[in-house]
């Protein structure tokens, strides 16, 4: 069984092109990490007027609580630093 998790983020001004380029080049190890943690689909949509990012993840209902530990993972921390 899967659940959907949605959340929003804000994009820094004047970073739209860079943001899109970096996501077009998403790291294979990050994709693998997400799949290993029960995230089977992860889509992010950008409202360019408000710079709001709206994200939706399909996650295995048995792994939702384990996703809390993703923030501790070295790959995830490197990705966030890369995207900051």
UniProtKB/TrEMBL annotation:
Any single GO BP term: rhamnose catabolic process
GO molecular function, one term: racemase and epimerase activity, acting on carbohydrates and derivatives
Domain of life: Eukaryota
Cross-referenced Pfam families: rhaM
Coiled coil: none
Cited PANTHER family: L-RHAMNOSE MUTAROTASE
The protein's name in its UniProt record: L-rhamnose mutarotase
Organism: Rotaria magnacalcarata
Biological classification of the source: Eukaryota, Metazoa, Spiralia, Gnathifera, Rotifera
